[in-house]
Amino acid sequence: MGLVLQRAYHRLQPVFLILYVLSLATSMGGMELFSSLLILLFLLGGTRRGLSRLPFWKPLIFFVVVVAVGILAGEAPLEGKLFDLGRLRFFLLYPVLFYSLKDCDPDQRWVGWLGGISLVVALYGVVQHFMPLDLVRPEGKKVYLYALQNEKIGPLVAGTFNHHLTFANVYLFYACLFGALAVSFPQVLRGALLFLVTFWTQSRAAWAAIPICILGLVIPRGKKAWALLLLLFLAGGPLFYFTDSGFKERLRRTLWVKDERYDLGERQRLWRLQWELIQQHPVLGVGWNNNERFCAREMKLLYPGEGVFCGHAHSEVLQIFSTTGLLGLSAFLWLWAQVFIAALQSYRAFPTGKRKSICLGLLIGFAGFHLQGVTQWNFGDAEVLHNVIFFWAAIGQLWLQSSTVIIKKSSQSQ
């Protein structure tokens, strides 16, 4: 029986991994289905693996344990606690994806799979930008296709996701990855297109992150790339402002028009609420999602007699801090520090080639993710989290491979 399960594992695992990677760019339903099949297959037929070779496992386990304890200690009802504990299943994906990539994709073929499907969705996004078109979502489901819904100004790009901010967070990763891999003119066009459709989501956080990410990709490429980048911004900025009504109006309302729908007034209230919650529960926080669950109650205490705007913290760090306390924030920062160190070490270890470019793209992509997280709880978005965890697994694999390169260099020098 064990031999049969192992054979099934080795035959089906590559298929499920390919389907999961294709789903990362297209479908939350696909992500959930194929990740569940990968986990089930791994548990039934995968070779038992220890944690000693799994990068980032110590801070990740620490973070999950702190979150779980905070959930149980919080004041959410039982069904809320069970729901929040169930959400921790996402982190079970990390070891499964890590070993799946190690077993069936040591040559980083996933990059080609992801490149093809993300290009198709990006072209669909171009159509969405010029035509408010949605071929994916069923009738009656809320669709964000305009920067300003009531005035219907500025068609957006949502791709095949439900929300333009989800698309922006996911596709900025892909833009950085394939921008780093661009060594020919068609590849440069693909990277530019991915950045363009991310920009067209009208996400202001993406607007802030995109120039910084492009700068990070250009720095290693020399003076010609710097000159091209400068020309791009000098020509592209005014061109978008005067030809794109959605960009112009959204930027104008953000910078010059007093309107709580578009300035930071409502978010500043939420940020103040998070600080109040942190002071009340400094060690473990109020519990995962409880800042949003009890937002209306707490906001009425802070702003009596005023309209209440509620939701998550609209800040990655504040959300983690208020819901998991100092322990959770420490684990979160420790985890991400290890991810960035691994990406940087891997980039430096590989002399040239595809793997070096992937490391650079993921390094810049992680930075862009956190830049968008300054004003958005993107780590809590399920589609985004699937992509983040997959890229953790990918950079973990590259880090192990780079360690082999370092050992070889050391032995040769001796």
* Secondary-structure element order, N to C: HHHHHHEEHHHHHHHHHHH
Weakly predicted, low-confidence segments: none
Q: Strand order within the widest sheet?
A: 1-2
Cα(first) to Cα(last) distance is: 49 Å
What integer is the average pLDDT? 86
Structure description:
With 414 residues, the chain is an all-alpha fold. It has a domain at 121-263. Helix content is 71%, strand content 1%. It has helices at 2-24, 28-45, 57-73, 78-87, 93-104, 110-130, 164-180, 185-199, 204-218, 223-243, 245-255, 265-280, 290-293, 295-302, 316-349, 354-372, 382-413, and strands spanning 146-148, 153-155. Strands 1-2 form a two-stranded antiparallel sheet. Helix 6 (110-130) crosses helix 8 (185-199). The chain is globular and about 65 Å long.
Question: What's the quick description here?
Answer:
The chain has 414 residues and is an all-alpha fold.
Write the layout of secondary structure elements.
Elements: H1 2-24, H2 28-45, H3 57-73, H4 78-87, H5 93-104, H6 110-130, E1 146-148, E2 153-155, H7 164-180, H8 185-199, H9 204-218, H10 223-243, H11 245-255, H12 265-280, H13 290-293, H14 295-302, H15 316-349, H16 354-372, H17 382-413
Antiparallel strand pairs: 1-2
Helix pairs in contact: 1-2, 1-5, 1-6, 2-5, 3-15, 5-17, 6-8, 7-8, 7-9, 7-16, 9-16, 12-15, 15-16, 15-17, 16-17
